[in-house]
Amino acid sequence: MRGVHNGLTSGQHLLCVLSGAHVRSPRDMPDPLKLAALDADDLSVVSAHVQDAVLRSADIVYDPKIGGVVLPLNRFAWETPGTRRWLFKTHERRRAVLHIDRVRGVRAKGVDRRDDKQVLSLLSVTFIPKTEDDPSGLIELIFAGDASMHLEVECVEVRMSDVGGTWETRSKPKHTP
Question: How does pLDDT run across 42-57, given as a tens digit for each residue?
Fold first, then answer.
């Protein structure tokens, strides 16, 4: 199919390349995950799968011309059970891309996209509607360390796709209530 690269449109592929995301065919890994969110309930499912993902702030791409934000990230694979290796239990991380479309504006606190050494840990992605019946509002990305991004959106249109390989990790994120 013309204009499609590894399951991504030309524009999405270009944003991934510009952001430094390593784009490989999802067929190279077992069970790549692809999720879409069109409302707040769907977004909570996506949020659960990207919780504890890590990314470099310099890799975040916002293109106001197409109204999109792309976050290449290394997500913890919560849906994959850990496996026992000798005395240790190992878990899995996967290379993924979070696409947020229909973005009209971006505000950030504690996120410096010029700092290529800043690493962010994504805690949640939520939608805050302007009014009860209005599809527009804010998508809020909360990161560890009191950092956040607020994306003004026409409506919820979010996709998360595994795009690269997987690797083992011994550490599993822990949360205290």
Answer: 999 999 999 989 999 9
Indicate if the pLDDT at residue 147 is higher than 70.
yes
| Side chain identity, residue 18 | L
| Model pTM above 0.85 | no
pLDDT confidence tier of residue 131, bands split at 50, 70 and 90: confident
Please report how many Cα atoms fall inside a 13 Å half-sphere around the Cα of residue 104, on the Cβ side: 8
Give the 3-state DSSP-derived string for the chain, with helices as H, strands as E and coil as C.
Answer: CCCEECCEEHHHHHHHHHHCCCCCCHHHCCCCCEEEECCHHHHHHHHHHHCCEEEEHHHCEEECCCCEEEEEEEEECCCCCCEEECCEEEEEEEEEEEEEECEEEEEEECCCCCCCCCEEEEEEEEEEECCCCCCCEEEEEEECCCEEEEEEECCCCEEEEEEEEEEEECCCCCCCC
